[in-house]
Amino acid sequence: MIRKNEKLFFLILLLLVTGKMIFVGSNVDEGYAIELCYRLAKGDRLITEMWEPHQTSAIFGALLVKLYWLFSAETNTGIVLFMHMCGAICQLSVAYYLYKVIKQEIPDHIAFYLSIFYALCYPKGVIAPDYSNLQNWFVTLMVLFLIQARKKAFYYILVGVCLSGAVLAYPSMILLYPMVIL
Q1: Comparing 122 with 155, which gets the higher pLDDT?
Q2: What is the pTM of this model?
Q3: Secondary structure (H, E, C), the chain
Q4: pLDDT (tens digit per residue) in 75-94
Q5: What pLDDT digit, counting tens, does each position of 24-68 carry?
Q6: What whole-number distance in Å separates Cα of residue 159 and Cα of residue 149?
Q7: Most buried among 98, 109, 150, 172, by the most CB within 10 A?
Q8: For the chain, first and last CA: distance in Å?
Q9: Distances, alpha carbon 61 to alpha carbons 16, 32, 44, 64, 166, in Å
């Protein structure tokens, strides 16, 4: 059994670490991923002008870049910070949903610690919504929707949406298709 004070302590710690990653976290791969999103948002076309292997993952980030431009008069100042915040929001949202789903299957305190652990684990240490994070989020949500599909068939539609998103994020994820339909 976990006490409220312990939960509060870990939630505050999670927010502090996430805040640190938003303002300080960055690496070479992240620049590459944000640059792909920027190029796609500026009008570069997939396959004809962009030949990077992760170009389809930039579709999601390009939407975020355009959203940022909508509120910033198309300036690029702060775009990395905005992408960090979007990545953190997505990661924390998936972690919260993970908690809500698995606490129905396992004891609450274990579900809580697993979701905190998940919230702190960013593939490659990148916080922006790049191909590795997108793949992570879509596959996690797909598994959680499969768990919930036992109760409501509607979740199978969301499983398909997540599989499509995972394939766009990382095209080799198409290999998951046979596993999902079985």
Answers
A1: 155
A2: 0.89
A3: CCCHHHHHHHHHHHHHHHHHHHHHCCCHHHHHHHHHHHHHHHCCCECCCECCCCHHHHHHHHHHHHHHHHHHCCCCCCHHHHHHHHHHHHHHHHHHHHHHHHCCCCCHHHHHHHHHHHHHCCHHHCCCCCHHHHHHHHHHHHHHHHHHCCCCCCHHHHHHHHHHHHHHHCHHHHHHHHHHHC
A4: 888 898 999 999 999 999 99
A5: 866 767 777 888 888 888 888 877 777 777 788 888 999 999 999
A6: 9
A7: 98
A8: 37
A9: 25, 12, 14, 5, 14
| Helix 28-42 / helix 58-72 crossing angle, nearest 10 deg | 70
Supply angle C-alpha 137, 79, 169, rounded to 5: 25
The Cα–Cα gap between 75 and 90 comes to 24
More confident residue, 164 or 173: 164
Give which of 82, 95, 83 is closest to 14, Cα–Cα: 95
Indicate the angle between helix axes 28-42 and 79-102, nearest 10 degrees. 110
CA atoms within 13 A on the CB side of 91: 29
Residue type, 27: N
CA distance 175 to 131: 16
The answer to whether residues 137 and 166 touch, using CB atoms and an 8 Å cutoff, is no
CA distance 10 to 109: 12
What sign results for the dihedral spanned by CA atoms 43, 49, 52, 57?
Answer: positive
